[in-house]
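User: what does the whole thing look like in 3D?
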Amino acid sequence: MLTTKVEIQNLTKIFGKKERQALELVKKGHSKEDILEKTGATVGVNKASFKVEQGEIFVIMGLSGSGKSTLVRMLNRLIEPTEGNILIDGDDIAKMDKEQLRKVRREKVSMVFQNFGLFPHRTILENTEYGLEVQGVDKAERQEKAERALDNAGLLPYKNQRPNQLSGGMQQRVGLARALANDPEILLMDEAFSALDPLIRRDMQDELLEMQDTMHKTIIFITHDLNESLRIGDRIAIMKDGEVVQVGTGEEILTNPANEYVERFVEDVDRSKVLTAENIMERPQTLRIKQSGPRVAMQRMKADNLSSMLVVDKNNVLKGYVTDEDVLEAVKQDKKDLQEIVRTDIPKVHKETLIHELYDVIHNSQTPVAIVDGEDKLLGIVIRGLVLGALVKEREEETVDEQ
Amino acid sequence: MNNSILDQIPRLPVSEWMANIITWLTQNLSWFFGAIRDGGAWLMDGITDLLLFIPPLLFIVLLVALAYFAGRKKLGLPVFTLLGLLYIHNQGLWDPLMYTITLVLVASLLSILIGVPVGIWMAKSRTANWIITPILDFMQTMPAFVYLIPAVAFFGIGMVPGVFSAVIFALPPTVRFTNLGIRQVPDEMIEAAESFGSTGSQRLFKVELPLAKPTIMAGINQTVLLALSMVVIASMIGAPGLGERVINALQRAQVGPGFVAGFALVVLAIILDRVLQGFNKSDN
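Assistant: Here's the predicted 3D structure for the full assembly of 687 residues, as structure tokens:
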């Protein structure tokens, strides 16, 4: 039985001076441009309504300026709503006084930010215990809870570092650990993974899903990325110009777009077309051309059971690949330099390449396919199995659909 | 001809108004000013006596050590401090130096105690910001000498009016930089603090002030240097110290002694500035 955790009703936000006048126009159904012209006020969110069920990942998707960040900030009143109701467990957040609101923020709702929102003057541990600290939890207890949260994220060894000493992915893990440390029921995630590079981003999405399997939080996740929405969202709300234009599962939105806007958004989304090299690429095992010789190569290939490895220079620009046979030969002949055995006949594609195009490339190749950017820098690697897997999955889904 | 209409306008008695205000304050609040004068004089004499009680050699060693740590253990600043203080002692300016240090110390501390809270208030309240900003502009553009006159009216002559005028002159940078520092805290930091349910004071003390600290320290650095320049000027109303020597030399047109004391002030200013900057940097 599903229970509603969060419900918003006619939630509206108007930025600007002539708030009341603009609100009247909103109620009469005037468009955003129209209201801006008449009153100079901007409609951030326009009569948004939806329900979020207990334990689901609810994604709010829209392009920049669609009002999604404003909407999520109204859920914990970082931005004051102009009108409408926000019910969490049936209590209206919009009508609470400061004291009640603070209690909700401390105990029920935590937030994860796009640029992590970590305090640079505090250590990782001190950041993680912030939420408990402001509640007045005593030091020993809050440290223990914070350490447990960091341990779950695999970050305990870094607890005495400062945020700027950590990579972006690790910083966002801290952001997530901090939000989870006071055990909230609802997590608000505002473009939480958008600042991360594609591979880390996928890892984080996986970790979030894994975490959700055991924790069953109610998660409201903001993103501008359709693939991310489809990957993690149980249900998706699509926003445009401050309005919620459609709410449904990924499947419903793809098969039955509510209007032309949604249709354009999800155009051509059958899996093989929407999945790009970026979505299925993996982190490559690489050798640095100057630092590594044949012996290092042999050692690492043995350790990871690889038959070939990519070779890059110090700027991560792809130079080619080496095979296990060549490496073995080079070691026997006591060569010191990888340069002599690097092969350059490796197919390179950009991350936007669609996977059915990728299939043609990889079909004719003996080696994995390298994903590079405009400057030939290596971003990731795609091996044959991954492409096939993705295509098979798509075929299966089509069959299911037909039945 | 053209002036004739303008000449018809009677002269506004601004001078009389100001004089009346000051006289009224002096007469009606004399008990208040008297208490401050006596208490202040007692306090500052005490500080100066304490500083003079420390043997000069020990004092120099302590300051050199301070400079060593402030300058991230490089040698330039401690060597300069050592040579500079030896020069001042050598020229027989040790006692005036202690008076000047007392004045700068007390004026700076008062400026910080008043300035930081006022700066915070301005950052939090639009109305406060709107009212206080022009007052700060006024305080900073008014020629410093003008403050000496009410200072004398309220407190007579000596150290206390010197500190009074120095605080008025040196206060604005601390207020402005505190205000600026808090306003510059990134929105996402504020949102993060708020989203976890911080109270106003938790947000201020745990997030805003720590993040604004480098900016506030830059303001305090300026305040200290302005306080130094003002306590020199305040020698005209009998504040003791190095400034007194400069004024004496000026009145008698003695080039030599004027420069001797002037150099001592330069030495003090450089030590104060570099040590404060050093501590601010090593904190970050």
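In plain terms: Chain A has a mean pLDDT of 84. The first strand of chain A starts at residue 4 and ends at 15.
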